[in-house]
Design goal:
Blueprint: H1 3-28, H2 37-51, H3 58-87, H4 105-133, H5 143-161, E1 165-173, E2 176-184
Antiparallel strand pairs: 1-2
Helix pairs in contact: 1-2, 1-3, 4-5
Length: 187
Amino acid sequence: MDNKQIEDELDNIETAVTLLKRDYEIYFSGGAKLPPYSAHRKVENLIRRFSSLTSLSYAQRFRYNNINARFNTYVDLWNKQMRYKEEGRTPSGGVIQSATAVKPDRQLRKANVDVEATQHQSLFNEYLKSREKLGETTTGVSFEKFSSQLSKQKQAIMDKYQCRDVEFYVSVEQGKTKLKAKPLKQP
């Protein structure tokens, strides 16, 4: 491998680790039903394949070691969070209430707001990454404005289509990042 290929491969590994971190965050926040095990294995294989290269310069070896250390730190964190999830505990040591437990109305609204904020944050991150990837500017885009706009659009769509919820997703059309909405019908 020449230096350009090595740098490109290191960039790919770094991007893969970042995307895997995002996928785990989505899983732990309840946005995905299964952990991203296949992506995890792919990243592990990329890192493992690089460990045996002897043609790395000192700077490249340093960068590789930093990426590897960051990945290993994330793996430890994910394993701990997975253990907490399996034991039914929160990271702070509390016990997660069962879904059948009756919550007071105020707590239920707060829980819904927390879930919505997590979904908005995840969507916001995806939106920003898509804009950056396409070379679009991200200045002037704040999470507060984004979240506020989503809430307004959600209510307007629910009123218009008489649906129970709205699912937002990021789409790329004609080289531009777009935010799309899908009304979810009554069960």
